[in-house]
């Protein structure tokens, strides 16, 4: 039997780069707690991207360690105390650089996927 | 943000709270969309996935996971080790012996070969060696004119110092003692950058004029030993050979000169050599002017900006120019440069180097055996713990984590082993340090458990962790969940047991190597002890004096020798006595070139002969038969015709097919002096300075009374082995001159045994390591077989139920164990062929492939293996088929 962790880690690897960016991008619109964050990503992607909560919390804590987001506990009218994350200044910078990298990559992929179109444009 | 370790717990609670909040919100939303509470809960959980895993991975992000794991692994480890104290004790003891042997040998090797001398910037200090062009293994010292030449000419050196060992008579507490020290150039201390602990060292001016500056620097050891470390001694006078010297300083503690194993007690300037070494003259010339008289060692410091290679090139060019200018003294010699460490052991200690090399290889093998043994134990325990690991894997522990935990346990074992090894090494070093080996006084060696040795032990412990822990960890961590649940399998042929078999086979092979090595060394020792000397070495007493220390004249010396000899000869219990310049096998080598034709001496072929000057009755005292001619008599003294006695093989070689009696030869160094006539021939024997020299080396005896002998050894043949006789002879010599130090009072047997100490130490140590290896291999084999019997209980039960007899069962188990032993022996045999090339140079009278040694080793090993297998085999016969089968 294969140790389950291996399978799990493979999945985060694929998601890691983009998940970080998605979290930062979503937090740009205001502080959110973990559950709201996962819901926002799902809704904004038209229910296509479903964030695996098993990856979400590790990612949040990793970003917090890097200083890109900050967290604080807030009481909510819903009942439980919530840990609310917000974007920091360095996080904002990071988001910009991730976004430009992302755009470069998608443009490059698009170029490969649609070569004829690109040739006719030039 | 990295959380401090102590805040971990709170942080953990917060994480749980956060996850719980997430679940609560999700649940609430599901309920709002119309699900029941139960359904909502399930859906929320399903969506979240594995909660504990998400928590665990999140915790990983905090960066303290490794420490938490380590603490957990360590506490598991401690629990496991304490749970099976028997296993822990055996493993730790095995490792302690293996590592301890290495630590011990390394600490000696370090002191002998590796530890840098305590001089300033040791890397820039070099030694100069005069080397024979034809035989690069032959070295010689330098003369004082050489010193002046190289010191002035060598521009690549910022300074050149010279030194030589000396022995002087120093009176301490009213008793004359012979003390070893060094005579050094005035710049010796300043070039080495050795600063005195007290007072000062020499200045260059103190070394310019012969006999003008009687000053002395004491070593810290000598100062502590003989002056109770009294700081007031600086400035006080001290009598050396009857000459007044002034103590000017104390060398730093820990500075013991540049020759390992020789600790000078003092240093004096070269210009005082006539007082310090009066008996040392060269053809009537002062040593300051004799170019052909080689007695000094050179050490220099590289000038700023010049490299080792530059210095080497310059020194060699200078040596070439010197050889061209003074061909009669320097032809055929060049000078090479060596790092200071390269000259710490004199070349004639090659035996020591070889022995240490062998010992290091041997302890390395012992450590490998110990590792194989512990690895086998770990594997056996691994099978016992299969269930534990299966369950842990089932609960989600990943394999790396299991390997890490097993390695942590291994590390704890080797740390415990390493710590115990230091204790063992401490004891071993203390007992070995009392050895005194030809030319190397072990107690003069600075063998200690310093940080270098500690570091070595640490590295070894880490190495052993990997060596014995890795394979078992990889094997054991392959726990199979299914197998755990189903129950253990009953087959034997898994890769795990094959690995254990491999460990046992390699232990057997390595032990065979060590057994053969120790067998060969023991036989060598035996051959040496039983060596035919050509004379009777029993009940022979030796007492030595150096009249040069008390400035005896020729006439005084003759009178002293005569008086002492007469007294000793008349003593009760003495059968006969004589004087000789040196006793056989004393280590003191006297040799010279002779020529067989007079006249143009330089053109005639020279023959190098070993020489001893002996008084009448020397041959009778030792029991050497005279084959032809006569013994020396008291008439063979100065002014009478010069005579000589040669050994049989010398006569055969120099005057083949002629009557040697009446033949003449000339000493090369004495020039045109009258020739020496051969008046007697004696049977061959070990007359040489060392048992190593072959009896075919030419040997010439000259009359003790015909030349002025400043050093003499009295040989007295006693009726019985009477211990008190030595003391009484010593008293008689002492009574003849109370100021004269009497030294080397011992029996010939003692001297002979001393000369064999290195061989003895080698045989004893390698033998002990061989026995250790054998014991470890036996334990390993026993462990494997016992475990195998345990695993095959079921099978044996079936066999017995089907009618197998007791002896069938015994054979079944024995066959398995002895097959492994045989494979190990075959591998070990191949190893002995490889061993041969290393051990050959240490053997005497026995071939490295000696069949008898090999056969005896094989029999011993087979016997021990049989015993190690028989005990588990016996246990197998006690298997009760009913119980074994009911075990289902």
Could you walk me through the main structural features you see in this protein, from its secondary elements to its overall organization?
The complex is a heterodimer of chains A (122) and B (888). By secondary structure, chain A is mainly alpha-helical. Chain A has a single domain, classed as Orthogonal Bundle (Arc Repressor Mutant, subunit A), CATH 1.10.10.10. Chain A contains five helices and three strands, in the order αβααββαα. The N terminus and C terminus of chain A are likely disordered. Chain B folds into five domains: 59 residues; 195 residues, no CATH class; 222 residues, no CATH class; 157 residues, no CATH class; 181 residues, no CATH class. Chain B has 27 helices and 24 strands. In chain B, strands 1, 2, 3, 4, 5, 6, 7, 8, 9, 10 and 11 form an eleven-stranded mixed sheet that branches. Chain B is elongated, with a radius of gyration of 37 Å. The mean pLDDT of chain B is 84. Chains A and B meet through helix 1, helix 2 and helix 3 of A and helix 1 and helix 3 of B.
Quick overview of this protein structure:
The complex is a heterodimer of chains A (122) and B (888). Chain A has 122 residues and is mainly α. Chain A contains five helices and three strands.
Distance between the termini of chain B: 56 Å
- Tally of separate domains of chain A: 1
* Major β-sheet profile of chain A: 3 strands, antiparallel
Number of strands of chain B: 24
Distance separating the two termini of chain A: 54 Å
How many discrete domains of chain B?
5
Strand content of chain A: 5-15%
Q: CATH top level of chain A?
A: Mainly Alpha
- Helix fraction of chain A by DSSP (H/I, runs of at least 4): 55-70%
Strand order of the largest sheet of chain A: 1-3-2
Chains forming the largest contact: A-B, 29 and 36 residues
The poorly predicted ranges of chain A are: 1-16, 118-122
**Low-confidence segments of chain B, ≥5 residues, pLDDT <50?**
none
- Determine Rg of chain B (CA atoms, Å): 37 Å
- Regarding quaternary structure, how should these chains be classified? heterodimer
Number of helices of chain B: 27
Query: What is the average of the pLDDT values of chain B?
Result: 84
């Amino acid at each position: 039997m294969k140790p389950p962790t291996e399978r799990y880690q493979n999945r985060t690897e694929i998601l890691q780069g983009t998940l970080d960016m998605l979290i930062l991008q979503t937090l740009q619109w205001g502080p959110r707690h973990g559950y709201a964050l996962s819901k926002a990503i799902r809704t904004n992607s038209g229910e296509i991207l479903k964030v695996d909560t098993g990856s979400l919390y590790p990612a949040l804590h990793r970003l917090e360690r890097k200083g890109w987001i900050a967290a604080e506990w807030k009481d909510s009218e819903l009942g439980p105390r919530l840990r609310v994350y917000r974007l920091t200044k360095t996080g904002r910078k990071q988001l910009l650089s991730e976004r430009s990298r992302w755009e470069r990559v998608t443009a490059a992929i698009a170029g490969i996927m649609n070569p004829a179109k690109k040739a006719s444009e030039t | 943000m990295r959380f401090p370790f102590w805040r971990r717990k709170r942080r953990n609670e917060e994480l749980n709270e956060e996850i719980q909040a997430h679940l609560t919100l999700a649940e609430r939303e599901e309920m709002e969309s119309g699900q029941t509470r139960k359904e909502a809960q399930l859906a929320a959980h399903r969506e979240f996935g594995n909660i504990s895993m998400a928590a665990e991975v999140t915790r990983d992000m905090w960066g303290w996971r490794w420490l938490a794991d380590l603490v957990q692994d360590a506490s598991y480890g401690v629990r496991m080790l304490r749970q099976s104290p028997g296993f822990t004790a055996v493993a730790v003891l095995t490792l302690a012996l293996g590592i301890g042997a290495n630590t011990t040998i390394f600490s000696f090797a370090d002191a002998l070969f590796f530890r840098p001398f305590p001089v300033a910037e040791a890397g820039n200090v070099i030694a100069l060696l005069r080397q024979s062009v034809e035989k690069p293994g032959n070295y010689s010292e330098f003369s004082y004119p050489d010193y002046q030449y190289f010191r002035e000419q060598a521009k690549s050196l910022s300074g050149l110092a010279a030194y030589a060992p000396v022995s002087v008579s120093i009176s301490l507490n009213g008793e004359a003692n012979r003390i070893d020290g060094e005579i050094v150039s005035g710049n010796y201390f300043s070039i080495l950058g050795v600063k005195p602990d007290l007072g000062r060292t020499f200045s260059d001016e103190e070394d310019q004029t012969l006999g003008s500056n009687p000053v002395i620097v004491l070593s810290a050891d000598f100062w502590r030993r003989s002056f109770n470390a009294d700081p007031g001694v600086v400035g006080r006078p001290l009598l050396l050979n009857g000459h007044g010297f002034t103590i000017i300083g104390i060398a730093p503690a820990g500075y013991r000169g540049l020759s390992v194993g020789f600790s000078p007690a003092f240093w004096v300037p070269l210009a005082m050599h006539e007082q310090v070494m009066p008996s040392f003259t060269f053809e009537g010339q002062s040593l300051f002017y004799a170019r052909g008289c080689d007695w000094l060692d050179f050490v220099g410091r590289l000038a700023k900006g010049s490299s080792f290679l530059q210095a080497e090139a310059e020194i060699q060019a200078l040596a070439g120019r010197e050889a061209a200018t003074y061909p009669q003294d320097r032809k055929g010699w060049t000078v090479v440069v060596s790092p200071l460490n390269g000259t710490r052991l004199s070349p004639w200690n090659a035996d020591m180097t070889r022995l240490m090399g062998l010992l290091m290889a041997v302890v390395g093998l012992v450590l490998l055996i110990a590792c194989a043994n512990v690895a086998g134990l770990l594997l056996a325990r691994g099978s016992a713990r299969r269930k534990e690991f299966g369950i842990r894997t089932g609960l989600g522990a990943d394999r790396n984590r299991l390997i890490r935990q097993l390695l942590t346990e291994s590390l704890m074992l080797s740390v415990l082993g390493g710590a115990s090894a230091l204790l063992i090494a401490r004891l071993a070093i203390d007992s070995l340090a009392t050895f005194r080996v030809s030319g190397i006084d072990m107690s003069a060696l600075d063998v200690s458990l310093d940080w270098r040795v500690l570091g070595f032990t640490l590295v070894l412990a880490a190495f052993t962790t990997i060596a014995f822990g890795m394979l078992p960890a990889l094997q054991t961590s392959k726990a199979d969940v299914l197998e755990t649940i189903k129950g253990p399998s009953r087959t034997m042929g898994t890769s795990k047991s094959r690995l254990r078999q491999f460990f046992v086979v390699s232990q057997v092979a390595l032990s065979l190597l060590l057994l053969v090595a120790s067998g060969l060394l023991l036989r060598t020792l035996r051959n040496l002890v039983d060596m035919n000397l050509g004379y009777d070495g029993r009940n022979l007493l030796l007492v030595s004096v150096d009249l040069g220390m008390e400035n005896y004249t020729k006439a005084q010396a003759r009178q002293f020798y005569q008086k002492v000899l007469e007294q000793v000869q008349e003593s009760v219990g003495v059968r006969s006595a004589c004087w000789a310049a040196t006793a056989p096998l004393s280590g003191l080598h006297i040799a010279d070139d002779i020529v067989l034709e007079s006249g143009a001496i330089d053109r005639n072929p020279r023959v190098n002969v070993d020489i001893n000057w002996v008084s009448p009755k020397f041959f009778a005292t030792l029991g050497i038969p005279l084959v032809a001619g006569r013994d020396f008599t008291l008439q063979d003294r100065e002014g009478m015709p010069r005579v000589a006695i040669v050994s049989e093989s010398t006569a055969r070689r120099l005057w083949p097919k002629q009557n040697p009696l009446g033949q003449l030869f000339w000493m090369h160094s004495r020039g045109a002096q009258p020739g020496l006539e051969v008046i007697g021939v004696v049977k061959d024997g070990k007359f040489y300075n060392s048992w190593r020299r072959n009896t075919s080396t030419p040997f010439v005896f000259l009359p003790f009374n015909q030349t002025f002998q400043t050093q003499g050894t009295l040989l007295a043949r006693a009726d019985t082995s009477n211990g008190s006789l030595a003391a009484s002879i010593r008293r008689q010599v002492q009574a003849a001159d109370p100021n004269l130090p009497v030294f080397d009072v011992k029996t010939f047997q003692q001297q002979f045994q001393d000369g064999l100490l290195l061989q003895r130490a080698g045989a004893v140590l390698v033998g002990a390591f061989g026995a250790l290896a054998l014991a470890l291999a036996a334990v390993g084999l026993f462990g494997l077989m016992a475990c195998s019997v345990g695993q095959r209980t079921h099978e044996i039960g079936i066999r017995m139920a089907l009618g197998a007899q007791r002896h069938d069962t015994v054979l079944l188990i024995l066959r398995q164990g002895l097959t492994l032993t045989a494979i190990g022996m075959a591998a070990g045999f191949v190893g002995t062929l490889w061993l041969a090339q290393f051990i050959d140079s240490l053997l005497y009278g026995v071939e490295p492939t000696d069949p008898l040694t090999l056969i005896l080793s094989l029999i011993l090993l087979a016997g021990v293996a049989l015993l190690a297998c028989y005990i588990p085999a016996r246990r197998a016969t006690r298997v009760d088929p009913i119980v074994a089968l009911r075990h289902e």
